[in-house]
Design brief:
This protein has 171 residues and is an alpha+beta fold. Helices cover 17% and strands 33% of the residues. It starts with a helix and ends in a 7-residue tail after the last strand.
Length: 171
Amino acid sequence: RDNILYILAGIIATVVAAASVGAVPGSAPVVSSVPVGSSASVTPSAPADPALFGTTWVAQAAVDAGVLTVPSRPEASASVTFDREGLISGTFGCDIFTGPVRVTANTITVGRLEIPQIMCFAANSVLAEALGDVLDGTVNYVMRNDLLYLTRTDVPCVILKAVERAESASS
């Protein structure tokens, strides 16, 4: 387990460093025209990795100022799903959310999220809060195997794991 954490920390450091200069390794910067906080419908634009869509991604860890946080029960924390119709949905601890999203090859731009409950950030609040912070506006993403890295320069990096893949994403 320790070796995996060291490898994971190295990958995270690379992604965070790339995000801090505005790029994800192997890709050109993308500029989004989606206004932050907009309630207007936002649709995905190609080319995004098809495995991203329809998959339930569960937060596993967060990296803030070089410190890796890995809770004992990440499965009870926070999750997110993106669909091809331009909708994001998921959970922040015990709160559920939905909203518009635009996905490109290396960025995800989240519009105004609708959260029907009062923000409770129950289980594993570090990951729930980190996911809530990173899903505010435009975020860079990288997918490696079953891991999704969400990075922005001003908030902690969040690492999510695919726990339930859509039928079409696994083929």
